[in-house]
Description:
Helices cover 46% and strands 21% of the residues. The protein is built from 4 helices and 4 strands; from the N terminus they run βαβαβαβα.
Amino acid sequence: MNRTHDYHAAVLLIAHGSRRPEANADLQQLAEQVRTTGGYAIVEVSYLELTTPTIDEGGRECVRQGATRVLMLPYFLSAGVHVVQDLEAARQALAAEFPHVQFRLCPPLGLHPLMTQIVLSRLQEGRKAES
């Protein structure tokens, strides 16, 4: 793994958001894991709805920390309405607010090649729970 920091790029992880704090804690844990890889100096979380920080707040925090490029990663399984419309609208709003900063919306998790391994791992865990 590349351990060189890109001090000008930030990662903004974006999840749907839940009223259950335990569900939102998953994204916080993922952010910490991404931070520890050493690839990005700035890693923040945000939520589309139901909790905070919002996407706007997360984007502003990235800029406050000195980011000139923000990679917005949807922690979503597919490119549904939220990813295609809502997150793109949030990206455009942040880009208008901070014209000197590049905001790039990354693809959702979707059908990444590792997704099959994740699904098989979860199925195995389910089988073990049956015994």
